[in-house]
Amino acid sequence: MDLGKRKQMILQAIVEDYIATAEPVGSRNIAKNHDLGLSAATIRNEMADLEEMGYLDKPHTSAGRVPSQLGYRFYVDSLMHRYSATVEEIENLNTALHQRYVNLNSVVSVVSDIISKITKCPTVMTLPAVNSAKVVNVKMLMIEKNLALIVVVLDGGSVRNKKVKVSGNITYRQVDAISDFLNSQLAGLGAKDIDESRIMLIYGAMGQYKDFLKVVLDFVLECLQSNITEVYVGGASNILNHPEFCDIDRARDFLRFIDNRENATKVLSLTNGGDSDVKIIIGDEAGLEEMRDTSIVLANYHAGGILSGKIGVIGPTRMDYARIVSSLETINAQLEGILTAVFYNEE
Amino acid sequence: MDLGKRKQMILQAIVEDYIATAEPVGSRNIAKNHDLGLSAATIRNEMADLEEMGYLDKPHTSAGRVPSQLGYRFYVDSLMHRYSATVEEIENLNTALHQRYVNLNSVVSVVSDIISKITKCPTVMTLPAVNSAKVVNVKMLMIEKNLALIVVVLDGGSVRNKKVKVSGNITYRQVDAISDFLNSQLAGLGAKDIDESRIMLIYGAMGQYKDFLKVVLDFVLECLQSNITEVYVGGASNILNHPEFCDIDRARDFLRFIDNRENATKVLSLTNGGDSDVKIIIGDEAGLEEMRDTSIVLANYHAGGILSGKIGVIGPTRMDYARIVSSLETINAQLEGILTAVFYNEE
DNA sequence: GTTAGCACTCACTTCACCCGAGTGCTAACG
DNA sequence: CGTTAGCACTCGGGTGAAGTGAGTGCTAAC
Fold first, then answer.
1. How many Å apart are B12 CA and D4 C1'?
2. CA B334 to CA B337: how far, in whole Å?
3. Span B267-275, average pLDDT
4. How confident is the model at residue B310 (pLDDT cuts 50, 70, 90)?
5. pLDDT at B337 (0 to 100)
6. Is B345 on the interface with A (CB under 8 A)?
C-alpha cells in the first residue's frame, strides 16, 4: 500500500508547513500556499485517506492535521529535499569554528555550543575517543622524593599520566632503568598483548620492584582499556525555543532528563538500524520514554582515522530535519581539520 | 533606625513562612502559626511599619507581605539560625560523595550534581585551581620521530603536557641533554623568575636549539600563568522546581544565562564585600540584570593549601538560605579529603 | 499599646458566550 | 468518476461578568 504521487505531495506540504508554523495545517491553507492545482475539498479527501493510513494525526475534530511519527518517517526517508548550506552560512560557521582551542575538551564544548546556536536545539556531543589503543611510550620520572610520575603515550597520541608513591629505597637511577626496561617491553602493545605471560616476563626480569611495577602495569592497562566517552550537553535551554516545550512540566521533564550524563550518553548511543553517516531517530523510535515527543539527528565525526565521536541534535519531532542534517554535515566537514590540528598540538 | 525585638520576630516569621510556602504571608497566618502572643491586628500594624521601612513588599493591596531584598539581607545577616546537618544527612552525603573519581574534572561534575540534588538548585563550580605555580620538573621525551612531548610538573603537583614538532636533525640524545639542562635551569622557578636574563642565559648555553627552546619556554610560561578556571554547571534544570520560575519566559531567560560559561564564571566571581567563607548575594546585589530575582550562596573550597575553587548555589531570592549554607559547609568539609586523594593519585 | 470589627481591595476562578478555523458530507459539475 | 462548491457541525480559545476569599487599613473600644 504505497502512497500515490499526489498523496506524497500533500504529505510533504503538511510536514513542511507544520515544521514552519507549529500549527496544525488545514486543507484550505495547503490549497492556497502550495500550487498543487487542487481544491481544498480534494485535499481534504486525501488528508482523510492519509490519516486513515496513519501518516497524519488530528489533535481534535476541528483542527487541521499534524504529521504522525510515521508521517515524519516517510518524509525523512522519501520526501525531504537535501538542503545545501549557502556559501554565506558556511563562511559564518567557519569564522565561528576557527578560534583558539585549548584542548580537545574545549573543542567539544565550543563546537556543541555553536551547533546549538545554529540549530536552536540542544546538542549532545562526546569527546573524541581514540580508536585503537597501543602503547607508544611509557616513561617514569621522579618528581619529588618518593613520588614518581608515570607518563603513558598512546598511539594516536593521547597522553595520560599518574602519580605514584614509591617505597623509600628506589633511587632515581633505578627508576630510570625500570622506565627504559618497561618501555622496551610495552612499546607497540595493545591491551590484549599485555597478557599473563608478558607480565610474568617483566616481573621475572625486575622482581625486586614488583609492587611498583604492578601499579604501573595496572595504570597502563587502564589507559589502554578505558574508553571514557565523556559527554557534553550544549545549549540545553534551547529546547525552550520550541512551542511544544512551552509547557513548564514538559520542559522540566526534558531538561531533567538531559541534564543527567547517563541519559545524554544513552541518547548518543541510539541507532536506527541504518548505517548512513547521519541518522534520524524520531519520537519513540528511541525507545526512551522521555524522548517520546522529540527527535534526534545523530552524526558520527572522525578525524584522520584516529579520533571519532558522536554529535546529536535534539529537538521536537517537528524539528527542521533538512536544515539540521545539512548543518551537521557542514560542521562535520570542518571538524576533522580542527580536531587533527588541536590533537597534534596539545593534549 | 534599628528594628525592635518584636519587629525582628515578625520579620523572621514572614521570611521563614515565605521561604517555606512561596505564598505572600498574611497577618492572620503569622498570629496562628507562630506563638508570638500577638493578635493579627497588632502584627498587621508592625507589618505596615516594616513595609514602610523597606523590609517588606506587597505584591498588591489585598495580598499578604513578601520580604524585600532588604528584608532577606537583614534575615541572613541577623536572624537566620544556623541549621546544622543531622548525622543522617551527613552520612547520606558521605555515601554519595565517596565513589571512585577518575580525575579532578569528574570530582567537580559529580560533586556539583550532588549539591544540586540536595539543594534542589542549580550549582556552579570551578575546577580546583593550583594556588601557587612553580616549576618542579620539566622533561622532554621523544614520542616519535620529529615529535617530542614536553611534560611540566608544577608544584602542588599538577602536570601538563604538550606535543611539539622537532625539526629534523635533533637526536634523541640531544633532546635528553636539553631536557636535563632546562630542568636544572627552571626547577623551582615561578613565572616572574623566568625573566629576560634567565632566558638569555638559556639561549646562550644552548643557542643552536633556540627555536625549539622558545616553544618549550613559552609552554612552561603558559603553564605557570594560565589559571584556566573552567566552570561546570550542574543541575540547571533544578531552577524549574521553584514556583517563581514556572513562567516559561523567566525560566528560559535564566537557563540561557547560566548555560553560557562566561556568565557562570561571572556568577562565581561575585563578592559581597565580606570575607567570610560562605557569602550570600541577594538579588541585584550581584549587579547582573538576569540575576535580579535570584540569590547565590557562594563558598570557597580548599584542599591542603594546594587547591582551591568556588562553589555557588543559585536559587530564587526565596531560597532556603539556612539549609543551603549548612549543606555547602558540610560538603566543603568532606571535599578537602576527596580532592587531596584524587589529586595525589591521578591528574 | 492592643485588639475586635468592618468596609474595602483585588487577584483568581468560573461560567456562559461567541468566534472562527477546520472538518465531513452531500450534491452538482465537467 | 474524479473534482469541486456548499453547508452544517465541531470544538478550542478568547472575552467579559459575576462571585469568592484572603488580606489590608482604619476606627473605636478595651
1. 74
2. 6
3. 80
4. very high
5. 85
6. yes
